[in-house]
Amino acid sequence: xxxxxxxxxxxxxxxxxxxxxxxxxxxxxxxxxxxxxxxxxxxxxxxxxxxxxxxxxxxxxxxxxxxxxxxxxxxxxxxxxxxxxxxxxxxxxxxxxxxxxxxxxxxxxxxxxxxxxxxxxxxxxxxxxxxxxxxxxxxxxxxxxxxxxxxxxxxxxxxxx
Length: 161
What we know:
By secondary structure, this protein is of the alpha+beta class.
């Protein structure tokens, strides 16, 4: 069961996102809405790859723990949570965060990706205040440099203990 503060924060977040959407662009077409609904938030290839990494280094984990910010994983026996961040949705590139990568709805996407980055920072701070160690990995690192991710995971879990 989600805690009460998480539910309240979720409603505040939804209100902010609605304000961003109303302020920056018109209602998307039906085709766009259908396409956007197909984007998964769990059970993605990115998460599968991270699970492979956990298994290679023999780390036990819990998928999608019900914690603030909805981390992708929690490492069992530790206070470590792991987020697998998509470069696009979490605004890794400056060109995307400032809207230059987009032909349509530039203001919306710039606001959305900037908001996502700020939300991630707030989530990190809140989880740390609650005693969690937060590890975030970019999708490109997970796919292209799994050894580097493995090393950071092992170091992150050792610091825990």
